[in-house]
Amino acid sequence: MFDTSFGLKTWIYPGLFWGVFMFLGLTLILPVMDGEIITWGKVYTLLTGEKLYTLPIWLIIGLVMQYFLHKWITKKGKNER
């Protein structure tokens, strides 16, 4: 499915991690920083419906970001040789 010679672990996993981190950060951590009180009911509501549509968006953004970052880093390393 993916070209593993390109480095599956070097950009796929960090991209997915970044997407999940941004999803959780923007749906749970930012409201707490703004002074909202987060209850388990509110967490359940946020994670099951109200904001769940943003998870695939953040996953795609994380993958795209890590892909281009990986390409830029490997290209930079090849130019130095």
From TrEMBL:
Residues spanning the membrane: 12-32, 52-69
Alphabetic keyword roster: Membrane, Transmembrane, Transmembrane helix
UniProt-recorded name of the protein: Uncharacterized protein
Organism (species): Ancylomarina euxinus
